[in-house]
Protein 1
Amino acid sequence: MARPSVMFALAGLTLAIAPCAAYAFWRTGAVRGVRRGLRMLAGAKPTPPKANKLPQKVVFGKIEGEARGAAGDVLMHTATAEDPYFWLRDSERKDPAMLAHLEAENDYADQMLKPLKALKDQVFGEFLAHMKETDERVPYPHGGWYYYSRTVKGLAYDIYCRKKTLDGDEVILLDVNKLAEGKKFCDVAELHPSPSHTIMAYSVDFQGYETYDIYFKNPTTGELLDDVLHDTYDSFVWGADESTIYYWTFDEAHRPYKFWRHILGTPQSEDVNLFTEDDNTFYVGSGKTQNSRFIVVESSSTAPTSEAHYIDLKGVSGAEGHKSAPLVLFQERTRGIQFDLEQWGDQWWIVTNKDKAMNSKIMTCPLGNTTFEHWKDWQPYDPKTRIKAITPFKDHIAVSGRKGGYQQMWIIKPAEDTWYQIDWPEELHSITISTNEEFDTDVVRVTYSSMTTPRQTLDFNMTTQDQKLLKEQPVPHYNRTDYASERIYATAVDGTQIPMSLVYNSKIYPDGIHKVGRLPILLYGYGSYGISLDPDFDYRRLSYLDRGVVYVMAHIRGGEDEGREWYEEQGKFLTKKNTFSDFVSCAEYLVSEGYTNTESICINGRSAGGLLIGASLNLRPDLFKCVITAVPFVDVLNTMSDPSIPLTTGEWEEWGNPNIKEYHYYMKEYSPYDNVRATRYPAMFVTAGLWDSRVAYWEPAKWVAKLRDFKTDDNPIILKVDTAAGHFSASDRYRHMRERALETAFVLDQLSSTELLVPGPPLPDLPPEPKESSRYAIVNM
Ligand SMILES: *[C@@H]1O[C@H](CO)[C@@H](O)[C@H](O)[C@H]1NC(C)=O
Ligand SMILES: *[C@@H]1O[C@H](CO)[C@@H](O)[C@H](O)[C@H]1NC(C)=O
Ligand SMILES: *[C@@H]1O[C@H](CO)[C@@H](O)[C@H](O)[C@H]1NC(C)=O
């Protein structure tokens, strides 16, 4: 199991990828008109807030009594740096001076963005026109039921349901709209039926900090059980029956580390702690093997290193049975060796990088003999094939991975020791394994999309290799033949070819986009944690494309887009700067090859992608017209030195630990906050979430304050802090879309691309603006 099997694919509204704690954790003749739009922001001149500067020394290196490094690390002697905006940091989020400053930022943002209201409303209307508001996910079979989620026009959240047969009566399991009543934020992370499908358990967070409570519901009566598990990690796993459930709690730095067994009907205080991950550089996760026989408990660091334990549920039943079912060590941690477990037949199936298999290979071992010496190659390692995860079924094993720069899938027939690769209709594509809860089947459900094909849910018959299209995400007023996507390559400073995927409206550019010279471009990047970008579909891009903007995705190093070495050897630790220079090379290529010029590129990235944006800006502030970045991780040097900040210790293996000399000085050369200088910067729109536990609000707040202090131009820099949200912005889908529409309006205005160049969709009546804006939460807290 690669990750806990998530029962319900959540609504897909959380746009981008985040520093995810472990498994859990954007011419020809037709170009006339592109520059027609008015620069609406040009007239707005309110005074930006100015943050106080207070003396504060930040200490790096050794501090007595603080765990500033992992075991064996040699810390540098104490070094100090001045951080005049340090005072903006308040872990409790209630310092009046800090809140007043954020409020001043929000007031300024409101005034600056006011002229964009009509455009924002227009874009929001386009989003709604391209979105089927009342819609339903394809029901998937699970234990005699069909489970699915659906949305209703006007309602902000999902409704989770099941039915006995595809045309049977609907049972509503959880209506998140009801759960969210009276709440400013509501995130249901997981919802799993018990093994006999008689109890539904769900984890919910009402704040955005990603601390959850787990509730239990009788799906027949709709009543809640007395059991509530407080302050838990989002994921949990049922035992062999409804008597028992397993879950995780956090340490002081919000790292899940204790694994607990809860017997239903007993108080949480009596729960038994089965495992504690004491090494603060390790993340944890748990889930069941696809055949439900084993619970696997994983610890892993991005070193990469794994350890796994398991509970064999065969023959286990009732509270007493679970109490005596032991947690057994599979294989202890060995630095540099990473693995994920599944089980098929009488063997464990292991996806691992063992024996220097950087892109991973598949190994097997007997159920009873699980240590390294018993592991055998299922087939020889192929360095050109990146194996990511396996999903076993009765007679087949589906394998997901990457080859040739794209996501791919293979099907193993274990009885014959053979496998084959599945072909997809478009070269630029995304393919992921969808929700597959049944083991005894010969079909695997997958999700396919491309930059022009909306998300398709397919059943692939592994015996006949037939594909059955169950549903394509309906996108009203969209005709894919009007759009084109392609892949191009920039040359990095070290000569490496860096792919870019792009999409544009081919009605606006009938002769293609090469040599147009001043294309408005939205360049998007991420490039960290080995997370790849894949050419996928997003109807919210249409508001850009139909105004002539070309959307470009940069497949830079730090992701594993071109294989694992793209990340491990060329995009982390002391090679991290490749990530930033690759992105700059992509933008430079677009200019030097005559696609565009430096007045026409907007760059976008969120979270660790915000670090990318911040670092690229310091490298080439003159290359970009405007910037849009959400929850940017920009205070890298300070955050990574302080183990009390969530995610820090676990990421010492990702960026390095700045309490150690070699990492300190390398990181100091790229950390965005530390490299702001007196120069011209582009127009910027920055967003933050007050309750964000992954990138604390103070990182963007300090960065913006420092940029305002240093920059030598009059370009606007706007910070908007959502005080009722965390890392993933608003949980309410309409609020989320309004925020996104505002960001889009900002970019369109900066790129002077506010006018539609092809007929837009007919606009619906807009739902009324919510009366209470989230920001007023500041004063009420
Ligand atoms: C485990 O290995 C030992 C010796 O290497 C062998 O005797 C034993 O039968 C094996 N057990 C299983 C369950 O394969
Ligand atoms: C897959 O194809 C085989 C062979 O035609 C058929 O027997 C089987 O029922 C198909 N599986 C499903 C789930 O439709
Ligand atoms: C999409 O556009 C093509 C080419 O303009 C046209 O032939 C086709 O009928 C359109 N499809 C729909 C569904 O409107």
Protein 2
Amino acid sequence: MNKSCFGAFLLLAFLFPASVDCLVRHYNFSVVLTNTTKLCSSKPTVTVNGQFPGPTLYAREDDNVIVRVINHVNRNLTIHWHGIRQLRTAWADGPAYVTQCPIQPGQNYVYNFTLTGQRGTLLWHAHISWLRATVHGAIVILPKRGVPYPFPKPDKEKIIILAEWWKADVEAVVNQATQSGQPPNVSDAHTINGFPGQVPSCSSQGYTLHVKTGKTYLLRIINAALNDELFFKIAGHNLTVVEADASYTKPFETDTIFLSPGQTTNALLKTDQAIGKYLIAINPFMDAPIGYNNVTSFATLRYKKTPPNPKTILTKIPPQNDTPKTKAFIDSLRSLNSKQYPAKVPLNVHHSLFLTIAVGVNPCDTCVNGTKLVADINNVSFVLPSIALLQAHYYNIGAVFTDDFPGNPPFRFNYTGPSPANIQTTNGTRLYRLAYNSSVQVVLQGTSVIAPENHPTHLHGFNFYVVGMGLGNFDPVEDPKKFNLVDPVERNTLGVPTAGWAAIRFRADNPEVHTTWGLKMAFLVENGFGPNESLPPPPRDLPKC
Ligand SMILES: *[C@@H]1O[C@H](CO)[C@@H](O)[C@H](O)[C@H]1NC(C)=O
Ligand SMILES: *[C@@H]1O[C@H](CO)[C@@H](O)[C@H](O)[C@H]1NC(C)=O
Ligand SMILES: *[C@@H]1O[C@H](CO)[C@@H](O)[C@H](O)[C@H]1NC(C)=O
Ligand SMILES: *[C@@H]1O[C@H](CO)[C@@H](O)[C@H](O)[C@H]1NC(C)=O
Ligand SMILES: *[C@@H]1O[C@H](CO)[C@@H](O)[C@H](O)[C@H]1NC(C)=O
Ligand SMILES: *[C@@H]1O[C@H](CO)[C@@H](O)[C@H](O)[C@H]1NC(C)=O
Ligand SMILES: *[C@@H]1O[C@H](CO)[C@@H](O)[C@H](O)[C@H]1NC(C)=O
Ligand SMILES: *[C@@H]1O[C@H](CO)[C@@H](O)[C@H](O)[C@H]1NC(C)=O
Ligand SMILES: *[C@@H]1O[C@H](CO)[C@@H](O)[C@H](O)[C@H]1NC(C)=O
Ligand SMILES: *[C@@H]1O[C@H](CO)[C@@H](O)[C@H](O)[C@H]1NC(C)=O
Ligand SMILES: *[C@@H]1O[C@H](CO)[C@@H](O)[C@H](O)[C@H]1NC(C)=O
Ligand SMILES: *[C@@H]1O[C@H](CO)[C@@H](O)[C@H](O)[C@H]1NC(C)=O
């Protein structure tokens, strides 16, 4: 464990022990079936090391992380380190059939990556089918040894993982949806650190956050839910947001945290209220006419020395369609942009893409009406290949993908107006090619095809700056004038507003890694010319298809 990361640093480590002391952190993730009872119902559940949520991965910035994943279940599996930049370690990113073939039953794979330029909280999760519903956990990246947080040092840290729980087998849920072409059944509960809270007709236990009075706690809050955007609120206590997606933010005070699936936020909690018991509420947010799990989950914040049977202090829970609340939260998020942590927003744009995000239909023999719902970007529904894209690219295997992904939709329409008559989409495994170190602007335009809805969108291998956001159709003349190119928040996941748009910028400095969106399209970043600007060969144990 106490081995220096790279031989070349040994001398430096000797000379500057405080600043260069990266470690190799070893973890074993044994993927097993665990009989789990929640909501008065039991099911065999796929977990890591028998835990739900799974084990926390702790490391410091610059550490090398080695996770040996051993698949003991009868399902294909991969693990994605959500938000880790994976500079030149694309083989360790994890999405199935994109950067690797699945780890098949009985097989192992060692994920090997180094944490560079990130500190805060992220999450890891399975990245195949819906296994991530129960196969997920926190990643805590501490600052380098001797480097302080850019905010008052908290007395204690607590991890808060929000998720969704289905009483049914999640694979059965998604398979049924795929077969029928209908939206999948919504979850039965929202969980906090694995606890569903009180649910009608089942007296299940809720989570308790135990605190001492007069302290400052750093809450590392993760939305590991599959589908639902969530509000997080503690009665009687404001929170000070200091970080999002492992990038520091300008601190701001709020009574409610808002997180899309895959997003993480660090916030300071001061336990400066009267000793007692306070309600914690997890409430979903939905402002579109589609099905979702509308059940609020509750937990409690409990001060030490609270007398027995106290009255719980309640709070006003944000309404489930409180769009202004989400907007206020999102607008408050700004990069810290200090001398030490500058926001490096690309000012010149080499590639400018306009991507419409929509739901459409495709023919489907097994489906109820002969059609199934599909998601598309610029009218292309991404079809996963049967061998991993990155391998196909590295080994030059033809006929797996094409690099002609369209940078604009096939035709312009009133994206947020009435749904067009023809909602058929095209299929394709099409990638968009980016030159190494080129800067990219992507405008993500939500559409009302079938129904408007909010789309959480995640970029693998890169962080991006959210330079603008708005409702309705993006105006290519007026809207860019209002872009924030000074201190926009840096993230890896964003929610594109319902019937609205978001503009992001990033630099394609992660060579040859191709990356995917949640609603799937892929970038192929070409090699650079320097020694550290190309993708190394795959590890020997990379799973085969
Ligand atoms: C992982 O498992 C191997 C084999 O059982 C064992 O030798 C090793 O010590 C374990 N590592 C950790 C970090 O638990
Ligand atoms: C799972 O747990 C339930 C409830 O405790 C029990 O009835 C059932 O037998 C268990 N199943 C297995 C396979 O252990
Ligand atoms: C992890 O990757 C580094 C860099 O390629 C390599 O030096 C190291 O040996 C690898 N570690 C393991 C355990 O595979
Ligand atoms: C989905 O919900 C429907 C209606 O409640 C139910 O009949 C069906 O069994 C559920 N599917 C799964 C896989 O649980
Ligand atoms: C909590 O923060 C809100 C701003 O979001 C502010 O209006 C309110 O006064 C604060 N409440 C307390 C108790 O500080
Ligand atoms: C949740 O949805 C169910 C069924 O659609 C409805 O009966 C119930 O009133 C809703 N609850 C809330 C809190 O909106
Ligand atoms: C199938 O189509 C009919 C007629 O358009 C419609 O009423 C029904 O809701 C559809 N069923 C499903 C499951 O989509
Ligand atoms: C687009 O549709 C919206 C909603 O129906 C409407 O308010 C708006 O005027 C339309 N825009 C144009 C340019 O037609
Ligand atoms: C999507 O592609 C299909 C098939 O080419 C076409 O019929 C449809 O009009 C396109 N829709 C949009 C919104 O581009
Ligand atoms: C798209 O691909 C799916 C399989 O991935 C297939 O079922 C469907 O028929 C295809 N749709 C079109 C329009 O080609
Ligand atoms: C990438 O581009 C930026 C901005 O133009 C430049 O500062 C940097 O040196 C470039 N990096 C490489 C490796 O070319
Ligand atoms: C598991 O992955 C392999 C390799 O891609 C594939 O051949 C096999 O069909 C998959 N098994 C299941 C159950 O999906």
